[in-house]
Amino acid sequence: MGKRIGLEVSLSAAEAVKMANVDCIAAYPITPQTHIVEHLSELVNDGVLDAEFIPVESEHSAMSVSAGASAVGARAFTCTSSQGLALMNEIVHIVASMRLPVVMILANRSMSGPISIWNDHTDVMSIRDCGWIQVFANNGQEVFDHVLFGYRVAESHDVMLPLIINMDGFILTHVIEPIEFWEKEQVEQYLPDFKPIHTLHPDKPVTMGGVGMPSIFSEAKVAQDEPLKQSKSTIISAWKELGDIVGRYYNPIETYRSEDAETLFITQGSYGETVSLAVDELRGDGISVGLIMDRLWRPFPFDEFRKVTGQAKNLIVIDRAISYGGQGGPLAIDLRSVLYKEKNQPDIANFICGLAGRDVTIGDFKTMYHKAMKKVKEHPREEDFEYYGVRGK
Amino acid sequence: MGKTKTDLTWQELEVGATIVTPGNAAEYKSGDWRSMRPVVDNKKCIKCGTCYIFCPDAAIYETAEGFFEADLYYCKGCGICAHECPTQAIEMVEEEE
Fold first, then answer.
1. Which domains does chain A have, with CATH numbers?
2. A220 in contact with B at a CB cutoff of 8 Å?
3. Taking CB atoms and an 8 Å limit, are A206 and B19 in contact across chains?
4. What confidence tens digit (pLDDT) does each residue in A248-298 have?
5. Does the pTM of the predicted model rise above 0.90?
6. Which of A66, A167, A256, A319 is in Cβ range 3.0-4.6 Å of A291 for a Cys bridge?
7. Residues of chain B found within 8 Å of residue A197, distances taken between Cβ atoms
8. Around A221, how many Cα atoms within 13 Å sit in the side-chain half-sphere?
């Protein structure tokens, strides 16, 4: 078993990137991602990590450099938040279409404005449809494990897609947690060297990122979406093997006291742990409630969600992003689509909360439960969601 | 390339739509874009090669007799050759298909 030490989650994430033995780190500092990149620059400077650290002039360049590095066969890492993600947006899409297995930690932070440095999921939801594999982490250990998992999956030849690890800004990035490091041998066993399929090299010239005329563009897009959909089996087997090596087993969705629950909370990211405590307290009051934590966001785990929500009467979906003028939060929108045409269609109460790092406590989730029980009696429709705790609403 | 681009299914594309045959832009039929075709009147042609020099697609070649003709696989019908010809030996005529 690896050594368990107390460390800031950002620093442990950087240590995981070191253990993944990356070749190229291109990043631009932005709160709350900063500590990850700072620590990586130290590791490279100190000669502990043999990699190129490229202090680029913008996030657009960070992703461009990562694309170039990956295209020549280097293991590339980058990391950003919020406005930085928005600035790299153009290349984020291109990296996916070129099937370059870049791994990025997204230290989730609000999209401005108003200007905010604090945590929610509005940044990642702005690129929901970018074609990357996207996972959420509940805690620092999951971030650490998923860096190694990320390269393992992304670089699998039947996948070859970039991967985002969502990590709540401040709630995870800036706290100290006990982190169990992997042994070097465990990393070697789990993560083989990156063997690219095509590389940019003068000895064997190829063109990457060429023009796609209307006669071929749709085929190119299907050739991108199919491996993303099919990557789920590789993802699941990579989680299984990770569990066999380090003893922590992960799934597309994680359940907590959900088996016989009439009502299920559904969360993404670090709120899962807070809600699990609310579930314990509600269960203590004799209430039949459980929790589903969505770990895999893209490809979306359709079957898993249908299975676990099959018996539930009510769902309380916690969203941390807004679809302006739309039908609620992005997670609730997807869940409604998943359950459409199912025999059992639970009523869905959707709360958008915790925007820009506003605290949502165990007590708040209990309040949401009681509010939701009133709402579900009226069978809420898609547009009937609530901005929880907003003054004047 | 055994197949033209329009024949390929999505399964047949290389990973990342990478093009693995270098220099295959030469296979691309830009002649499809043409609505006007250049026709040379060799009686007026003085074999100066101005059309050959000005053609932006290098689609004009010299014949064995020293005259010049457009390779219609590539010629987009832009009309620069006709515009530049000092003896007005080149006429642009409508493609009729």
1. 4-246 (3.40.50.970), 253-387 (3.40.50.920)
2. yes
3. yes
4. 999 999 999 999 999 999 999 999 999 999 999 999 999 999 999 999 999
5. yes
6. A256
7. 15-16
8. 10
